[in-house]
Amino acid sequence: MPRDDNQLFGELRSNQYDTPHNVTSAELVRSFAKWREISLTRPVHITTHGRVSHVLTGVRLFQQMMQPAGDDGEMSTDDRLTALADWLKEGFILCTADEEILYINQSARQYLGLQSLKPGTQLSDAFPEFDGSVMQVQFRRTLEKNEALTADIPTQRRQGRWVNFQSIPLGDRLILLFRDITEEVERYRKADMKAAMLEAIDRNPQVSCVRLSQRGLIDMADKSIEDWLGICNAKLIGIRLHDVILREERHAFRNALDRVIEQNQPCNCDATLMANREEQVSVHCAMVPLRGAYGTEGVTIIMTRR
Description:
Layout: H1 5-13, E1 21-24, H2 25-30, H3 32-39, E2 44-48, E3 51-56, H4 59-66, H5 77-85, E4 91-96, E5 101-104, H6 106-112, H7 123-126, H8 134-145, E6 149-154, E7 162-170, E8 173-180, H9 182-202, E9 207-213, E10 218-221, H10 223-229, H11 233-236, H12 250-263, E11 267-274, E12 280-292, E13 295-305
Helix pairs in contact: 1-3
C-alpha cells in the first residue's frame, strides 16, 4: 500500500535517513517532495537498473563542488566588511591608520556627493572640510587611543544638516560611520521649545494649557486652571472638560471640540467655566489637534481669561 506524504515526511523528521541514500527512478517520481527535502542536507543517488546514474543535491553543495581546486570561496575580512557595508543605510568609510581611504559605500557617496575616488586618496583630499574639524580630532583620537567615539555634529558639506559621526578602530583599520540626524535634532528642538512655552504659560496666571484625550477627558491641566476653578489637579484629571463649562454653552463647545478631533482642524471658541466659588471664569479657547505618530491623539487647548 503506498505511503502518503505525511508518513514520508514523518520518516524524514525521525532521522531514519541519516546515511547516504540510493533511490530508484520510479521511487523518486512517486515521492519527489520527500527526496528533494533530503537532498538539501545530503546527496541522493538515483539508480537505474541497479546502477547509480544521477545525483540529486541542493544548490549550496553543488556550488561548492563547482569551485576551482584550492578556492574555498571564503572572502577576506576586508571583503566581508565592505560587502556588509553595502547594505547599510549609514555612510561607511574604511581607512588605513595613515588615513588612506580603502572603501566608501554607496550611502556615503550619495550623501557627500562623491562620484569616484582614485586609489590612495587621503581623507583630507576627499573631504577638505575635515582639516581642523571636530571630526578630524575625533577619529585621530580613535587611532591614538584605540577607542570608539561618537558625536552629533553639524556638517559643513551640507549647510543646516546634522550628522551622528562614529569612529571605530578595527585592528590597523579605521571605520567612520555617519548618518543624517537633522530630523531628530529638529524634534529635540521642538520638544525644548514646547517645554519652554509650557513653563512660560504656567507662570502667567491669565493663561492656561489643558490637554484632552480623544474622548474629551482631561489628560493634563496646569496650575492656572486649578486656581480658576478651585479644584486640585488630581480631581481634574479624567473628567470631561465640558462638564465644568456653563450648561447653556456646552453644546457649542462640544461642537467645536468635535470639529477639532474629527476633522483635524484648529478651532476657536468662547466659554464660561464654573468655579467652586461663586464667580464664573470667562475664557477664550484656542484648540488644536494633538498629532501623534499614528494620527490625532487628542486636543491641546490654550485658554486666556476674558
